[in-house]
């Protein structure tokens, strides 16, 4: 496959190992496994990748890995023999997939190699050099395998076929799959592709698996291919599903993120910790472990960070920083704590977001807090809220730990996904995951807990929500952590706030994200930008967190929630049969509360406008 420019942030997301990326010309390739990274174009492994190391002790303890690395950026080697560019010519491996192509003239099918670079090839039938197009289909299964569509087996109706005749695609000119017919020119067998992408969720079977063998000798099962690793196959008994190669179900990345939060120490200690852990100082961090006592380490820090530290830094503060780094890297959570890792990560974050913080990586300014004795001056919303804070600076670290195909599964068994990212997990010397670090800004909003409890315990809300729970009782892989009225309500409010903030702040909706805090005593949401560079963002969002501006935006967001262009259908469907995947949404659709899926923590699921604005049981009724 030829070289394609790729964004490093997408390699820790939608374009991670095992995903299909599309070139400007429409060709697709699969991103290689992690143990194939950090190699140059000739396959030579880099000897020193410590500069890409990222330190995030909380994520490391939860994911139980040895290291985090950021994807390498491409650096050209210098033409000057005296100038050495470290880690030059490092590339991310790409393999051509799907391998099956067809001639743009005669439409003869042909299977190419994973490392094929050119698609201008000699066509045996045309006897001319022709452009070969990739077929639009691939085959996936629930275990994460990715295979080519079995063209030869399908047309002959037999997975044991020995016929090697030339296959030709006949296109009838329609827009449906039955307009495609595959013909074998040797034995004259032919077959169309009608219903080939169908899948029976109830019985967990596919049309391709059930109907490939015409003689009904048995169901066709997944080939077990992993083209992002090599040509080898695994045993797999899952039902194979044919799907368009650009479908979102081909690759659904599994990520976990954490905000960088300062410890309980001074600004000077925070500075020392951040400097030692920065990628630019990886040699300092490495050499610290070679020193055998604390006094030598303090002296070493003073010598090597003399231009970075303030004049008033004391030896005690350096010792505190070293102790924090040591304890942070060795910290381990108990098995009981790891049962709810999302809440575990957010617990400490919530403590910092509800107070004033001024550190190098997190700056929180409380803007407003509810006081029972406060004169609200006719402000309808203040009694419903607890606090409003502005985050002038934050740093988010996101780790990719795996991916799903076909259906997104909610699970905290992170290590079960690691083997899908590696060619051979057993043989790697250190288990690492790719991460991405970004700086941004945000607005933190917490609802009034007393009001929420009073509202949630009302009979109208309970009756409505019980009918919702009964409706989704059959759904597998649902996320039970959000299945409370308060959680779905604040999640929906978050979406309308993002929509309204995007209209005013200057950032598009895809650049704004939500981070929900759903523990019993929390009920808060952080709406933030994490699309900036290493210097952060431009302040357009945090400016709207000022008290005199935010409540106007909240009012507009609440008013937008009261009406959908699909009403009354949207509201009625939400109350009777639900909407979205598996009916997990109530009164929520693309015309009202959906935002870009990368901005939502729950993929635009668990949303319901009725819990916000219904005149009988809405929180803001």
The chain-level mean pLDDT equals 86
Gyration radius (Cα, Å) is 28 Å
- pLDDT < 50 runs, ≥5 residues: none
Strand fraction: 15-25%
Residues in helices, as a percent range? 10-25%
Taking the sheet with the most strands, its summary is: 8 strands, mixed
Count of discrete alpha- or pi-helical segments spanning 4 or more residues: 15
- Intertermini distance: 58 Å
| Number of E-state strands | 25
How does the overall form come out from the CA principal axes?
globular
Structural class: alpha+beta
Quickly list its features.
621 residues, alpha+beta, 15 helices, 21% strand
Characterise the protein shown here.
It is built from 15 helices and 25 strands. Strand 16 and strand 17 (205-206) form a beta hairpin. Helix 4 packs across helix 7 (315-330), helix 6 (294-304) packs across helix 7 (315-330) and helix 12 crosses helix 13 (547-561). The chain has 621 residues and is α+β, with helices and mostly antiparallel strands. Among the domains are: 10-95, no CATH class; 361-403 and 430-613, no CATH class. The strands form 7 sheets. Strands 4, 19, 20, 21, 22, 23, 24 and 25 form an 8-stranded mixed β-sheet that branches. It has a 4-stranded antiparallel β-sheet with strand order 8-7-10-9, with no helix packed on it. It starts with 19 loop residues before the first strand and ends in an 8-residue tail after the last helix.
